[in-house]
Amino acid sequence: MKNLEKKVTKNLIKDYSNLLNGNSFKDFSIFVENKSNPFEIKVHKSILSSRSPFFNESLRQESLSISLNQFNKKEMESILSYIYYGNISFENQENLIQLLEISIYFKLNLLKEIIQKKF
User: Fold this and answer.
1) How far apart are CA 71 and CA 48, in angstroms?
2) Where is the BTB domain (predicted)?
3) Beta-bridge mates of residue 3
4) What Å distances lie between residue 97 and 38, 43, 53, 69, CA to CA?
5) For residue 17, what are the domain limits?
6) 43 CB-contact burial (10 Å; exposed 0-12 / middle 13-18 / buried 19+)
7) pLDDT truncated to tens, each residue of the chain (119 aa)?
8) What CATH number has the domain bearing residue 103?
9) Whole-structure pTM value
10) How many domains does the chain have?
């Protein structure tokens, strides 16, 4: 049974990865970096709102986008990787501090707990 559960989990991660990296059914945009040079990341409202209390609250409005200029492209892509399929990269101590701050901002308590255990 454990092998079957691992296979299901692996397939789920692959499917969500395909959603994040593909262009199908994306209904929301996140703009990061600065206003004069924004970078757009297209995402799925339903996935963001189900995984992050921050997005659950923020996406209740009928907006089609949000600007999160306090984050850069790499940080946002990293947090979206966690939101979509639970994968997070711990590159170095500085990266851990940034990810901890981001996990607090987006109210990702499990990620916050994981990062705190890494310290």
Assistant:
1) 16
2) 26-92
3) none
4) 24, 25, 21, 18
5) 2-118
6) buried
7) 789 999 999 999 999 999 999 989 999 999 998 778 889 999 999 999 999 999 999 998 878 999 998 988 988 999 999 999 988 877 766 778 888 999 999 999 999 999 888 77
8) 3.30.710.10
9) 0.86
10) 1
